[in-house]
Amino acid sequence: INLEPLFFFFFGISEIKEKLETEKKLSFSSLLIKNYSRIKIVALFLAILELYRNGVIDIISEESIQIELAG
User: Fold this and answer.
1) Cα distance from N-terminal residue to C-terminal residue, the chain
2) Is 29 helix (H, G, I), strand (E, B) or coil?
3) Which ranges constitute the DSSP H helices of 1-71?
4) Calpha distance 57→33 (Å, rounded)
5) Calpha distance 51→27 (Å, rounded)
6) Are 26 and 19 in contact (CB under 8 A)?
7) Using CB atoms within 10 A of its CB, is residue 63 exposed (0-12), middle (13-18) or buried (19+)?
8) Residue 26 and residue 5: Cα distance in Å, rounded?
9) 3-class DSSP assignment, residue 20
10) Is residue 15 within 8 Å of 48, Cβ to Cβ?
11) In this predicted model, what pLDDT tens digit does every residue of 10-61 receive, in sequence order?
12) DSSP for 31-45?
């Protein structure tokens, strides 16, 4: 069983929350600065959706997808 996608999903949640503590907004593309594999990008996107589903972040669609803390 390959647990890498699951690990990266939870790592992605932590990374997004941590970055939003110092920055007001994040773009999805700014989270992809590293050379991630396709599986890691999907896991990161699922982490964003999970945070949105739980009301932790808001997703704003302007010129690019922006992410900010909810509230």
Assistant:
1) 38
2) helix
3) 4-22, 38-53
4) 20
5) 15
6) yes
7) exposed
8) 22
9) helix
10) no
11) 988 998 999 899 988 888 888 887 788 888 888 888 999 999 999 999 988 8
12) GG-S---HHHHHHHH
Q: What predicted TM-score, i.e. pTM, was given to this entire model?
A: 0.81
Banded model confidence at residue 71, pLDDT cuts 50, 70, 90: confident
Q: With the C-alpha atoms ordered 6, 11, 14, 15, is the resulting torsion angle positive or negative?
A: negative
- State the pLDDT at residue 38: 87
Q: Three-state DSSP class for 18?
A: helix
Could you tell me whether strands 25-27 and 65-69 are parallel, antiparallel, or unpaired per DSSP bridges? antiparallel
What pLDDT is stored for residue 63 in this prediction?
A: 75
Check residue 28 and give its pLDDT: 83
Is the CA virtual torsion 16, 22, 28, 32 positive or negative?
negative
**Rounded to an integer, what distance in angstroms lies between the CA atom of residue 39 and that of residue 44?**
9
